[in-house]
Amino acid sequence: MVKLKDIAHGRSGDKGDVSNICIYAREPKYYEIIKAQVTPEAVKKHFKGMVQGEIERYEVPQLDGFNFVLHHALDGGATRSLRLDSLGKSMEAALLRMDIELSK
């Protein structure tokens, strides 16, 4: 078991109450592992209580990456939220703490 950060890196941002997280495999060999385990359902479970809406995943195989769009994830967004991170800049770091099972 490893953390996603051990096999991937990422970046996050926002648009209103929507958080956008891009995750890229550190090496091409990790792409399929991430694809199989970092599903919209797994991300929703990982962010339990924080993300109130749907999660969409867009695959970008040419870059060994994924773009996750988390709806209703920022408590209203920068102009409405009292969260310390109302822009969702730390959402990528939170996702990278997800546990991943490497193939045996």
UniProtKB/TrEMBL annotation:
Which residue numbers delimit the AtuA-like ferredoxin-fold domain? 2-100
- Protein name according to UniProt: AtuA-like ferredoxin-fold domain-containing protein
| A Pfam family this chain is assigned to | AtuA_ferredoxin
